[in-house]
Structures are given as structure tokens and as C-alpha cells.
């Protein structure tokens, strides 16, 4: 079975990128899929907080430098069976990001989830180059969506042959407030279906405080339900060539009417929609 290497990225910090990576990886592991999570956010590692693991004195930085082995940096999360390569808490010096491919090649797992740092960096370029899919996390506001669009443009310009892996977009912390960018507008901005529309959920900070992935801390909360639906697609198609950039059979609940039918796209052309069209034309 071929590896599915998924980089989780965001144009800016604070949008829930690491929360997405940790919880999808946890769901996959709990379902019995061999899964490893790489905390590649070497500037602000936080995966061990989410999982309740002890901070590591050796991690991805030392692995990339050839100073540690996989056995030394690959703890297991007892509640889920998830393996995790954390970034160490030691100060980082010069890091050879080009060795990331070698690390990924050494990992014999079905799903390899890479939690990347936010924004644009050499590490993002290397992670995208080895990935079969990229998950882009954003929130329904203009700064976040603009940053995500710029990131996609950056990845396209610095990718292999100008091509991108399968792209899946996630909209997080949705409250349906009138000032938010509507999910349909986000889909128009990226010319792609959203993989999941994730509601604002007060259980997220509670689970981080409890050092437990949210899908285990509160498995039936809105955030968990949204990720469970999407993860089921990943597991259902695991034995075939899986194009998760086109979850055509998946309809986010926010787009379903009271009869269970897919709702029509919002027919409005407000200020945010016009700005979204302008940004799409600018960066694509």
C-alpha cells in the first residue's frame, strides 16, 4: 500500500493548523491505520502539548542533522497508538531541510502527517515536494484567506515543475456571523470544494488544557464530528488511488438543507465576494 504523505499548512498562525493535524492523525491511528505525525513546526512546536507527551530533548532537528535515530525520537501516544516525531525544545541552529525526504523515506507508515510551520519557508518547500496531498487550514476572515491564497501561490511557484500535490482546503472556526467570509465565497476564491467546514468549538482549548486530542476528549462535539466525516473518506478509499482534493461525495453539513439535499450556492455579490474575486484573480 503506497504511503500517503500529507502536509498540513496555513498562511498564518492561530488558525488551528496543529489542531487539525493532531486530530486527523489521532483518528487515523484509532481506526487502525499505521500513522505517524511529524511536528515540523520547529519554530513553535506544540504537538506534544496536544498529545500530553513530554517535551523531547531530541527531535526532528536532531534527526535532520543525523544526530539522532528514529527510535530515539519516535514516542507513541498510548491512547491512540499514534507515533509522533516531535520537534525538540532545544535551540535550533542551521537545519538541513533537504534531508526531510530521507526522513520520510525511512518511515514505513501508511499515513505520514507533517504539521508544517505557518507561512512561507524552505521547510514548506521541502515538505510539499515530498507530499502526496496538502491540507490548507484557514479561518473565515480576509487576513487568513489572503495568507492562504498567497501560500498556495508560493507553493505553486516553488513546486516541482510548477505543479502542486492534491490540495484540500479546510475552513475553521465558522460561526455563520454576517461579517465572516461565506464558505461558498472561499470555495470560489480557491476554485475548489472545501474538505470540511469546522464550526467554532469551545472544547478546543479545553482539550489542549487537558493534553488530550479533541476527538478523544469530546468525540461528539462539532469539531470532532466534522473531522470524523472527512477522515472516513480517507479510510474508505485507502486501498485505491485516493484523490482527496476532490471529495465529491462529501457534502459539508453547512451546505445541506433541511431535507438532506445539497444547498444551492449563495446568490450574493457583497463586498467580501468582490474582494475575494479580486484576490483570486491576483494570485492565480
Description:
This protein is an alpha/beta fold and 284 residues long. The protein contains eleven helices and seven strands. It has one domain: P-loop containing nucleotide triphosphate hydrolases (Rossmann fold). It has helices at 17-30, 47-51, 60-64, 100-106, 122-130, 142-158, 183-190, 203-209, 214-217, 222-236, 271-283; strands spanning 4-10, 35-39, 83-85, 111-115, 133-138, 166-174, 194-199. It has a seven-stranded parallel β-sheet with strand order 3-2-4-1-5-6-7, sandwiched between helices. The longest helix is centred in the middle third of the chain and has 17 residues, at 142-158. It is globular and about 50 Å long.
Amino acid at each position: 500500500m503506497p504511503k500517503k504523505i500529507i502536509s498540513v499548512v496555513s498562511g498564518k498562525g492561530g488558525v488551528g493548523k496543529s489542531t487539525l493535524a493532531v486530530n486527523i492523525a489521532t483518528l487515523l491511528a484509532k481506526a487502525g491505520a499505521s500513522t505517524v505525525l511529524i511536528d515540523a513546526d520547529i519554530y513553535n512546536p506544540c504537538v506534544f502539548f496536544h498529545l500530553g507527551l513530554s517535551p523531547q530533548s531530541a527531535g526532528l532537528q536532531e534527526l535532520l542533522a543525523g544526530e539522532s535515530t528514529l527510535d530515539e525520537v519516535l514516542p507513541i501516544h498510548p491512547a491512540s497508538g499514534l507515533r509522533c516525531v516531535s520537534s525538540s525544545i532545544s535551540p535550533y541552529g542551521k537545519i538541513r531541510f533537504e534531508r526531510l525526504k530521507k526522513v520520510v523515506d525511512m518511515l514505513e507508515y501508511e499515513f505520514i502527517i507533517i504539521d508544517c510551520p505557518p507561512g512561507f519557508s524552505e521547510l514548506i518547500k521541502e515538505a510539499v515536494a515530498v507530499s502526496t496531498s496538502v491540507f490548507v487550514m484557514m479561518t473565515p476572515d480576509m487576513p487568513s484567506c489572503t495568507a492562504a491564497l498567497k501560500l498556495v501561490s508560493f507553493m505553486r511557484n516553488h513546486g516541482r515543475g510548477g505543479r502542486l500535490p492534491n490540495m484540500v482546503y479546510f475552513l475553521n472556526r465558522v460561526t455563520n456571523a454576517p461579517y465572516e467570509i461565506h464558505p461558498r465565497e472561499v470555495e470560489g476564491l480557491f476554485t475548489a470544494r472545501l474538505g470540511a467546514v469546522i464550526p467554532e468549538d469551545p472544547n478546543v482549548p479545553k482539550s489542549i488544557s487537558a493534553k488530550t486530542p479533541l476527538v478523544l476528549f469530546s468525540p461528539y462535539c462539532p469539531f470532532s464530528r466534522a473531522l470524523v466525516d472527512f477522515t472516513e473518506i480517507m479510510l474508505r478509499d485507502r486501498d485505491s488511488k485516493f484523490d482527496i482534493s476532490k471529495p465529491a461525495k462529501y457534502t459539508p453539513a453547512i451546505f445541506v438543507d433541511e431535507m438532506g439535499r445539497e444547498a444551492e450556492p449563495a446568490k450574493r455579490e457583497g463586498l467580501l465576494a468582490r474582494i475575494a474575486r479580486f484576490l483570486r484573480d491576483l494570485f492565480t
